[in-house]
Specification:
Elements lengths: L8 H4 L4 H11 L3 H9 L1 H4 L5 E3 L2 H5 L4 H8 L2 E3 L5 E3 L3 E3 L3 H6 L12 E3 L4 E3 L8 H5 L7 H28 L1 H20 L4 H12 L4 H13 L2 H28 L3 H7 L18 H6 L3 H14 L8 H14 L21 H22 L1
Antiparallel strand pairs: 1-6, 2-3, 4-5
């Protein structure tokens, strides 16, 4: 038999110095990695303006604006706007035209063809992106959206995997495993040699989203009293939003996709210093019958919060509850049940809700990224 941690909080403080230090100094900053990697691919996969590469004109010394005017047909977009085609070029002999050494203009009746020499890109906004390095445009433009979808599928899988890990080994260790996966494969993203490896690395990073945000949130919610849980949730969501603003600033300063991938991963190595300060969840300790560890934690919380409590407060609570339930102080029977991800599918209602929530989550992520 275990006790509800909410019964202990009034004795040690529901929103004392200890909770404030953990929340503001640890739980809030660790929202930033989640914000960064949730939307990093918006910048890594950015598609800048592009057009067919006309090597003959480029070698001939023509500027990009002149190449567009002389070799690229004008097409109408789905919104009725006229613009230079990004996937077609005039199918003419440019060397012959150049050899005439006269001023010439394109004839709209000329035949057109798909780009045969690759693409040229406008680098005024992005120096490089995954798209520009691997020419993921026109017939290959599906690839960028595919990486988003795989990343989002990783989000879905990660919720199951890290949810199980949290219950198995605790919130604290689960968080640092999550952090390690995100850092390692976030850095690996920068060195991906091609689309397949890039997609695999983004899937593995996706496993940590949003768990790297949720785990600290859960720890914060489990440490504070009921009256402050709405406030802590709101502040962490606000911190996530501020992280998105910070990401936009970093992407503005770093416009090479590989450097950006490194800049949004390497700094978070500093978060390993939290190992010595981030507490384990007292509720998880109680749920897994680690009463001594839970006792040590609440004694620390009480001391930092300036509260005087009994040396064996938890043990006394457990004995009192045992007396109420059994009418004696006999040794309690361990009735703790271990839950797994399979319990989400145990009943028809649970199966339905699990599948619906998972599907809605995946759709929301795909729509947001798009």
């Amino acid at each position: 038999m275990t006790i509800d941690f909410d019964e202990v909080l009034p004795y040690i403080g529901e929103w004392g110095k200890y909770q404030k230090l953990v929340f503001w100094c640890i739980c809030i900053p660790v929202c930033i990695p989640c914000a960064f990697h949730s939307f990093l691919q918006v910048f890594l996969n950015a598609i800048p303006p592009h057009w067919c590469q006309i090597s003959e004109l480029k070698v001939g010394g023509y500027e990009d604006a002149a190449i567009l005017n002389l070799s690229i047909p004008i097409v109408e977009t789905a919104f009725g706007e006229k613009t230079f085609s990004q996937c077609l070029m005039y199918d003419v002999d440019y060397e012959s035209l150049l050899s005439q050494n006269v001023t010439w203009t394109p004839n709209t009746s000329w035949p057109t063809t798909a780009c045969v020499n690759g693409w040229a890109y406008d680098h005024s906004t992005y120096e490089t992106t995954v798209v520009t390095d691997w020419d993921l445009v026109c017939g290959q433009d599906w690839a960028g959206m595919m990486t988003y979808t795989v990343f989002s599928f990783g989000n879905l899988c990660g919720n199951f995997i890290f949810g199980f890990i949290q219950d198995w080994i605790g919130r604290k260790r689960a968080f640092f495993i999550c952090l390690t996966v995100e850092i390692v494969f976030g850095i690996a993203t920068a060195f991906a040699p091609g689309l397949i490896s890039y997609t695999v690395f983004r899937f593995l990073v996706g496993l940590t989203i949003p768990q790297i945000f949720v785990i600290p949130l859960v720890i914060a919610l489990e440490l504070v009293g009921p009256s402050k849980r709405g406030f802590t949730t709101l502040m962490q969501c606000l911190a996530f939003s501020l992280g998105l603003l910070l990401l936009a600033g970093v992407a503005y300063l770093i416009r090479d996709w590989q450097h950006l991938a490194l800049a949004t991963s390497i700094p978070f190595i500093a978060f390993y210093a939290y190992w010595w300060f981030l507490p384990e969840s007292a509720r998880w300790l109680l749920a897994t019958n680690k009463v001594d560890a839970a006792e040590a934690l609440i004694q620390t919380m009480a001391r930092v919060n300036g509260k005087q409590i009994q040396p064996n407060l938890l043990q006394n609570f457990i004995k009192e509850k045992e007396l109420l339930v059994n009418g004696s102080s006999d040794a309690m029977e361990d009735t703790t049940r271990t839950y797994t991800v399979l319990d989400l599918f145990r009943t028809p209602r649970l199966r339905r809700n699990t599948l619906l929530v998972s599907f809605i989550w995946l759709v929301l992520i795909v729509i947001t990224c798009k």
